[in-house]
What we know:
This protein has one domain (14-99). The chain is 31% helix and 30% strand. It has two helices and five strands, in the order βαββββα. It has helices spanning 19-31, 72-90, and strands spanning 5-11, 35-39, 42-45, 54-60, 63-70. Strands 1-5-4-3-2 form a five-stranded antiparallel β-sheet, covered by helices on one side.
Amino acid sequence: MSKINSHNCNLNIWYYLPDEVWDKVSKIYESMPGWIGYKNGIPYWFGYEEDDVFIEASVEPSGLSFYTQMNNNDWISWIERFKLEASKVLCFDVGEPEDGYM
């Protein structure tokens, strides 16, 4: 069995972007594997914080922030797919600001 680890990721999807962009982000959320919906306004995939495996997202000044507990390979696969889908739908390169994505 693969080890469950915590992961954090911030993406260059900024809180001040217009509602039209955030409407598209919501659709991307729903299209991603493991989508289970919102709980108290927070989007979740695979499970909730009290579960062993989950992904949650929040909008922060540092960008769209993900926090997860899952094995490394599953997380890397999931977040890379999210970045690819978001880049296509939002029409700009989505990635981590610390990697140069602004």
